[in-house]
Amino acid sequence: MNAVEHETQLDAAARAYVTIGMPAEELRTLWQRPDIQALIWADFADLTPVADRTLDWVAHGPAGGEYRWRTETAEVGANEIRWSSLDGADVPNVGSVTFHPAPGDRGTELHLEVKFDPPGGVVGEAVSKLFHVVPREIVLKALYRFRALAVTGEIPTTNPQPAARSGSTDR
Amino acid sequence: MRALCWNGVNDLRVETVADPEIINPHDVILNVRLSTTCGSDLHLIDGLIPTMRAGDVLGHEFMGEIVDVGREVTKVKKGDRVVVPSFISCGKCWYCQHDLYSLCDTSHPKPELPEPLLGYPTAGIYAYSHAFGGYAGAHAQYVRVPFADTDCFKVPEGVSDEDALFISDAAPTGFMGADFCNIQRGDVIAVWGCGGVGLMAQQSAMILGAERVIAIDRYPERLAQAEAFGAITLDYTKVDVVEALKELTGGRGPDACIDAVGMEAGGTGLQQAYDRVKQALYMGTDRGAALRQAVLAVRKGGTLAILGVYGLMDKFPLGVLMNKGVTVRTAQQHGQAYVTRLLEYTQRGELTPAALATHRFSLEDSPKGYDMFKHKEDGCLRAVFMP
Ligand SMILES: NC(=O)c1ccc[n+]([C@@H]2O[C@H](COP(=O)([O-])OP(=O)(O)OC[C@H]3O[C@@H](n4cnc5c(N)ncnc54)[C@H](O)[C@@H]3O)[C@@H](O)[C@H]2O)c1
Ligand SMILES: [Zn+2]
Ligand SMILES: [Zn+2]
Description:
Chain A is α+β, with helices and mostly antiparallel strands. Chain A has 5 helices and 7 strands. In chain A, a hairpin with a 2-residue loop joins strand 2 and strand 3 (54-60). Chain B has 2 domains: 2-169 and 334-386, Medium-chain alcohol dehydrogenases, catalytic domain (Quinone Oxidoreductase, Chain A, domain 1, Alpha-Beta Complex), CATH 3.90.180; 171-330, Rossmann fold (3-Layer(aba) Sandwich). Chain B has 14 helices and 18 strands. Classes of the chains: A alpha+beta (171), B alpha/beta (387). The structure holds nicotinamide-adenine-dinucleotide and zinc ion (2 copies).
């Protein structure tokens, strides 16, 4: 896939942005670790590393549906990492993350973009219907989790001890 | 373990729930020695804060003893007697490093919930609905405390459990309010509300050098406590507060006003001044009466510090602030920035947080404690629970 094609595919992408008070280089290295990838997307999908730049994803729908795909890192530039799903993906997608210096001593600005179900994908249904969560939320959460992990070494969680009784819902 | 659970509006029960465990490497588990009620809980109990869930363990003001530590905790250890601010802060992010602890970037487990409403998620907080993180509270035998190195403060000799208890929330919140006022020589500070937060704001304003502190409420026993702290008191049901403040300040108005009331402000016996503003600005008469009064009363170019908790109030006299050139300062408490200092003031006897503890209950009787606190029965200022 060339750059132009990649950009058109990202047109309707879900995007999120954060600033992290660390150097870009360090963050880029961290992002590429498969164990880190597995942790930051864990709310959305189970990730298993297959090879250096290849990950298997399994996402579960609320009704028990299981959706699988494999991604490969397409390109690693100085400021950018891109990946896309391979043929046969249940939910085809392409993604990228960029790292740019923030002003002053604020560290690095990260932009994360993911487009699910790009043209030509097998599954027509919207991601939000499949997973009951909008793509923007998936992307935002993954990026916030990455920031927490980078800054503190842990991801904030209340699992398995939420304040409420298990199964109870908002009122 | 036993814990006080919220089951719906005005439905609190003590139940048996699972014991908390260490989840993350910077967690500790606290054996709760004391916990207490807060005006903020009333907003939850009354159903004014959405995203509560049945079974939520309440309580965000507490102190206790560390009984278990995560593998990366270095500054506190098993057996330490500690107080913990109500907001969970990592100590490492930009906000924590700038003493804006309640705005921590990394402690909210569900940042996608508040983000659409606030623009950016804030810190997580114990027992303050799922939109604020869904962390279990401390009206329980045990509580899990994340980021213990930043959030657990050892209580020094000479500071009692009850003093330390209120340094988790009411005292740092009140002190932050006084700090916001940037108090100069000769300043007069007016504080709306003589609950735990308002009283601590009054005492803090004196510590920070206020010439005079004026305390406003309607409950005689609360006003009496304010007076004991050295404040001049006003009963808002008996006097026209704005007029009285003019009289007490030679027509200048207070240099700074602190709102320690919040979204459930009583509007009984509304004075003329308020009615005039209401008429002029077409505002509703609902909650927010105290805040509106403070906006009107504060001197030109003065400071308004908002500590009371508000939702998304849609009618607010912004023009009054604008035309008077008022500086507004507000926040959820940045407790971690103040606790050490407050423990020192308390050790020296300058700050007396334990004065807030008027009623004591076992954890089993905590629903009764909340009932008394809510209805201010028997002069209940704060109910303290002993698990
Ligand atoms: N910013 C923070 O981090 C933070 C922390 C703790 C509490 N709070 C908020 O601070 C507020 C006060 O907390 P609290 O524990 O002291 O509550 P509280 O309920 O014990 O006290 C509130 C007091 O305000 C008085 N009041 C009501 N209407 C008034 C009016 N029109 N004029 C003057 N006084 C009036 C009540 O009589 C009561 O005594 C609450 O809104 C609470 O949610 C904020
Ligand atoms: Zn509180
Ligand atoms: Zn932080």
